[in-house]
Amino acid sequence: MALNFLNMKKKLPVLGIGLGLRRELATETFESKDKIDWLEIVPENYMDLGGMAGERLEQALQAFPLVSHGVNLSIGSTDPLNETYLKSLKKLLDTVDAPWFSDHLCFTSVDGHYLHDLLPLPTSREAVNHVAQRIKTVQEYVQRPFLIENISYYMNMPGCEMSEVQFLAEVLEKADCGLLLDVNNVYVNSINHNFDPYKYLNALPLERTVQMHIAGHSHGDEMIIDTHGNPIIEPVFELLDYVLGRVVVNGVMLERDQNYPEFSEILSELNQIRKVASSYQPQLAKLNLIETDTNGSPELRNSICHTLDTSAGRRSAHAS
Length: 320
Ligand SMILES: [Fe+2]
Hints:
Layout: H1 5-10, E1 16-20, H2 26-31, E2 38-41, H3 51-63, E3 66-69, H4 83-96, E4 101-104, E5 107-110, E6 113-119, H5 125-142, E7 146-149, H6 164-175, E8 178-182, H7 183-192, H8 197-202, E9 209-215, E10 218-219, E11 224-225, H9 234-244, E12 251-255, H10 263-278, H11 282-285, H12 298-318
Parallel strand pairs: 1-2, 1-12, 2-3, 3-4, 4-7, 7-8, 8-9, 9-12
Antiparallel strand pairs: 5-6, 10-11
Helix pairs in contact: 5-6, 9-12, 10-12
The chain binds fe (ii) ion.
Fe (ii) ion (FE2) binds next to loops.
């Protein structure tokens, strides 16, 4: 596929505001299809599987557009690309007709052993060339637009030659691929590694953003941790607001992976995301789905008003 990613992005659908499909939330998710625009699936949970996983996938496919967000591609590894994995991934993507697919800018395997963690790459020129070539190879094989996600990381690898954001920007340009921008990861990293998250965003080719993630995090002893186990905090909503005010995005997705609340709280968070999007991108927000004030708590309304009232000032303060 001869690629020019930015031209390809213009042809991608605007999916709206989505949720990660999780087994624990599946029943309520399916019951709430009028309030959720699309679902993100973890392909490793469905590739080559039938049984209950297959049934859940079929049910999801009947009700929602699906996109795929993998964890085991290991795009940055020095292991050869796993052809068996890629074949199964392509088959799944073809089955669900995903408009795009994504994985993380990291490595998850060494010498064929999977580490079950998303580990950062050394931000070297050699690694830029290595991972960009592999992204091109994968995109060519799968024949669908490929997005890479900025990860949360808790250490710097030996051999770093540039900042993480410079590394990410160079990989995006050299691979000519898309960005899955996780604003919670940007916030978590900005606290743990002491940088300005707005300068980080300004250093990225944001126009490559097709999808965004937003989530909550937890506080550890020395660092904050990207757990997806708490409500989204306002500074993370502000980063979402900042990005949506600057570039067209095709989908925003709420990640919730543990410490599950009442499903109504998840729906409230989706509504908050919709309201932030509504200020800039009505098609993304799907305005007809925004719950009116009478359905929201006063706290929620105040929080949203504050987010929107203060965003204009922040945007001009942080704009590059
Ligand atoms: Fe994420």
